[in-house]
Design goal:
ribosome binding; mainly alpha; 7S RNA binding; SRP72_TPR-like; TPR_rpt; signal recognition particle; 682 residues
């Protein structure tokens, strides 16, 4: 037994040396085999179990490593294996569990602090994450300082982008493309798009320089690394309205087929937002990229939420009503206070012509969430206007108390009431807004006895109210507003003129008194450059005509003043067969079809003259063409309107002056004239 034990100890030592050698060479698969052999000799060896967990982690087998830790909890205590357990949970996207493991560790090592910062970033606890990285940078001195600064700048960029926090200047030297990229993201969050684009261009340049130094890196590898920088550039172009350039750059990135599922999802989502309700087939293909495996772990909550919103909108645009309702209902359950899911549901109802139901849905949300009531009521008013219920829309808008005094709201309400010819309600809107500013000024000037001028917005509302009342004949009501304006600025001649004009219709005596305040004509003289005025383009024609006047004509012009020349009336042309004794046809100006005596064309007139039957056969009308029979037959009376009829009588009324009685003879000429575009008559 002792010999066997000695042999086992010798083989274990050899195995341990093998594990050590493989670990130094990075061959963890072979090291794992040796560790397993050691565990066959001593199954509860703490060091062997620890080494097995490390080997599994190095090989990417995080589930198996965590299983080993959980099955040997008595041996592998939290003090021994806390970092490895937390790291496995972090890599398996069990972020909350990783945080608990780190916090339960008895000793916070540097490795745990590094992992703690990563966990806080994934949980979007940016303030705590910022503090953790600052502590690490302050208390660490090793070769990973540049990586920590990069992570610190990423936290600041996330705060600026998602929490709209003004980023502080960290004083970091942007020597790497990662630091430049994060700085650009922070600028985008602040809305400084031009500065952000310059930072991204610098990041692209630094990236190319650093990667081109490695001979093993190909151009395809460089383009793959630059994909995220180019994606952010395209996003800036999209925000700037350069959608064509952005779309082209987005498609170039997709053609590279980057391995980052998060990047592909963001780009696909942005292309969908550019397409909107157009190019729906392309959007349906792109939306598949947003459903790739692991996307939910790569993006922030707000990014994932935006993607889900766009999926619901795409379902609405593609007439998938059930899918749209399902997605919007899911979004509403996740974020009950969010406005967008309700708006999507209302839009879908409107597409289904259920406007009343859409308004009811919005009203219920406004009652439950007073903070969002203003935006909801604006949407409700828009729906009412689309239905033609302008008065109801005005009632909804006036119920938004925080917007009642805003100039835009006052303008909209007055315009809508004017459209409905409800002048009293429009004036009431002006009155309420002016009263609000009076009360606001009284609150701000409480206890102050000196004269306080009114705000520009207040004065603008009073002026608009006065102009509106004058326009609609409310002189007496406009006078009080004009007097208030003149009191604020007695030197305002325009207001004084309006006031005098209004009083002249109500109280002429008062108008005369006020007219004394008007400035004299001397003070109102305009400084005009006469030479410049004469040399202007408008005076050229007058100057040329004046140059033609000479001698007596010029003196006559000076003596008599300007005389308007009378234009000679041209005599109208009369027809050749005009007879002044005959009264013209009063309907001669009307087209023939619109005249009272028009009877229409006789259909089938020429049908009898068309030969029918087989070729060579005679018809009933052939006798009319037989000359011998015509000569022997007694003469018939001429047809009305024919040449014989006109020549037989000497006192016949010309056809332009007589009133046709529907005779068929004149219809042929009338029809020919009508084809030429004649309107009848002279």
């Amino acid at each position: 037994k002792m010999a066997a034990a000695a042999g086992g100890a010798g083989s274990a030592a050899a195995l341990w040396s093998e594990v050590n050698r493989c670990g130094q060479n990075g061959d963890f698969a072979r090291a794992l085999k040796s560790v397993n052999k050691i565990l066959q000799i001593s199954k509860d060896d703490v060091t062997a179990l620890h080494c097995k967990v490390v080997c599994l982690i190095q090989n990417g087998n995080f589930k198996e490593a965590l299983s080993v830790i959980n099955t040997h909890t008595k041996v592998l205590t939290s003090d021994v294996i806390a970092f490895e357990k937390a790291y496995c949970e972090y890599r398996l996207n069990r972020i909350e569990n990783a945080l608990k493991t780190i916090q339960s560790a008895s000793q916070q090592t540097d490795k745990l602090k590094e992992l703690y910062g990563q966990v806080l970033y994934r949980l979007e606890r940016y303030d705590d994450c910022l503090a953790a990285y600052r502590d690490l940078i302050r208390n660490s001195q090793d070769e990973y300082e540049e990586e920590r600064k990069t992570n610190l700048s990423a936290v600041v960029a996330a705060q600026s982008t998602w929490e709209k926090v003004m980023p502080e200047d960290l004083g970091l030297r942007e020597a790497t493309y990662e630091l430049c990229y994060n700085s650009a993201c922070a600028l985008i969050g602040q809305g400084k798009l031009n500065e952000a684009m310059k930072k991204l261009q610098k990041a692209e340049e630094l990236c190319r320089q650093s990667l081109s130094e490695d001979s093993d890196v190909t151009e395809e590898d460089i383009e793959a690394e630059l994909a995220i920088i180019h994606g952010q550039m395209a996003y800036i172009m999209q925000l700037q309205g350069r959608t064509e350039d952005a779309l082209q750059l987005y498609n170039q990135i997709i053609k590279l087929k980057p391995t980052d599922a998060g990047l592909l999802a963001v780009i696909a989502n942005n292309i969908i937002t550019i397409n909107k309700d157009q190019n729906v087939f392309d959007s349906k293909k792109k939306v598949k990229l947003t459903n790739a495996e692991g996307v939910e772990h790569k993006l922030s909550k707000k990014q994932l939420q935006a993607i889900e919103f766009n999926k619901a909108l795409l379902a609405m645009y593609t007439n998938q009503a059930d899918q749209c309702r399902k997605l919007s209902a899911s979004l509403q359950s996740q974020s009950p206070e969010h406005l967008l899911p309700v708006l999507i549901q209302a839009a879908q109802l409107c597409r289904e012509k259920q406007h009343a139901k859409a308004v009811g849905l919005l009203q219920d949300f406004a009652d439950q969430h007073p903070a969002s009531a203003a935006e909801i009521k604006l949407t409700m008013a828009q729906l009412k206007i689309a239905q033609g219920s302008v008065t109801k829309a005005c009632m909804i808008l006036r119920s938004i108390e925080e917007l009642q005094h805003k100039p835009g709201m006052v303008s909209a309400l007055v315009t809508m009431y004017s459209h409905e010819e409800d002048i009293d309600s429009a004036i009431e809107v002006f009155t309420q807004a002016i009263r609000w500013y009076q009360q606001f000024q009284a609150r701000t000037n409480y206890g102050c006895c000196v004269f306080q001028p009114k705000s520009p917005v207040h004065l603008s509302l009073i002026r608009e109210a006065a102009n509106f009342k004058l326009k609609h004949g409310r002189k007496k009501e406009a006078i009080s507003d004009l007097e208030e304006l003149w009191k604020q600025n007695p030197k305002d001649v325009h207001t004084l003129a309006q006031l005098i004009s209004a009083y002249s219709l109500v109280d002429p005596e008062k108008a005369k008194v006020l007219s004394k305040h008007l400035p004299s004509s001397d003070t109102m003289s305009l400084k005009v450059d006469v030479d410049a005025l004469e040399n202007s383009h408008g005076a050229t024609y007058v100057r040329k005509k004046a140059g033609k006047l000479t001698g007596d004509n010029q003196q006559k012009e000076q003596g008599q003043g300007e005389v308007k020349k009378k234009k000679k009336k041209k005599k109208g042309k009369l027809p050749k067969n005009y007879d002044p004794k005959v009264t013209p046809d009063p309907e001669r100006w009307l087209p023939m079809r619109e005249r009272s005596y028009y009877r229409g064309r006789k259909k089938g007139k020429k049908k009898d003259q068309v030969g029918k039957g087989t070729q060579g056969s005679t018809t009933a009308g052939s006798s009319e063409l037989d000359a011998s029979r015509t000569a022997s037959s007694p003469p018939t009376s001429p047809r009305p309107g024919s040449a014989a009829a006109v020549s037989a009588t000497s006192n016949v009324i010309p056809p332009r002056h007589q009133k046709p009685a529907g005779a068929p003879a004149t219809k042929k000429k009338q029809q020919q004239k009508k084809k030429k575009g004649a309107k009848g008559g002279w």
